Amino acid sequence: MTDKQRRRRFLSSLGSFGGAAALFGSRAQAQTPANGGQVYLPPYAQLSDYKTRKQSTWDRSGGNADFRKIEPGGTLTVFESEGPGIITHIWFTIAARSQRHLKELVFRIFWNGNAKPSVETPVGDFFGLNLGDYFLYQSAFMNCSSVKALNCYFAMPFQKSARITITNEGEERVDAFYSNIDYQLVTALPAQPLYFHAQYRQATPNKAIKGTDKNLNGTDNYVFFETRGRGQAMGVTLGVVQNSDNWFGEGDEMIFIDDDSKPIITGTGTEDYFNGAWDFGVTNPFGYLYNGAPYIANGERQGGRYCLYRWHADNPIAFERSLKFTIEHGHANDRADCFYSVGYWYQSEPFTDFPALPSAAERHPAIKLS
Q1: Is the domain of 285 the same as that of 155?
Q2: Cis peptide leading into residue 365 (ω within 30°)
Q3: Would the pTM count as exceeding 0.85?
């Protein structure tokens, strides 16, 4: 068989996989492109200058005890590296005595040797499990498998150094914390790299505002996060516990960009912001690449529980000086439900001016009547 025949047989075999574009992307070109254009190759088919690395909880003795224990009040450092580099993937799985460990374990990331973190959130909330329960879902940046494996795929560049810790704020020992963190060491980062941030907030409950059905300035809105600097917002995760019957989600998102006096972006309702519709069909969970309501229990009833996510990878919300990301709790803030959330964003300098993290007991989701 000649070389030409071998090539033809190989290209013919690609038909069962959707053709060469399925392997090399929809922009794959012929070997001799028209009009002097260049052949497109995805990054994984080109030589790279970075060094691939992983830090994990592997058993340094060579045995199979590939985990760490975390005593009550203890802190485990799961990642520490000098830069420049890029964290590309974080994987955790946990065996803990406490049924509340997703709320009790606190995940922190420190950039460039800062004493304060730029990521500070309970482990479960960071991965979209905002009510402290495991459930199956997948999205572009976060997922949870059916076997309680947690994954994050946000790229996290760092210039000088990065450190990641897990602190057990519960009263019982974590018997096995497994961690795998993939990263790249590079000679230099691309121009204008941004630092990843994630901030936890809660309102238990929100304060219901009665006597008005108008809200233009967002004064009493729930705040996902606020920051000063230059960057772009990537999205939020939100857990809701209903403190009363009926639909909780008539609240509009209101986003203040470089001006705290008025929102630049105003939406049409909570279910619309999370790219659902019509009260999420009351009890119809869903999950997609950039949006979802993957967990709904006892919808529109007191005690109803929701977990939601929305990623802005299609159009990150850019800010030059400041950003305040808010949403109403009910129409014109007329409901007093419990919210538990994480906001995710990037900015040019590490930001560490976070509000104090509520205690582990305060973070436990429950009906709370005002």
Answers
A1: no
A2: no
A3: yes
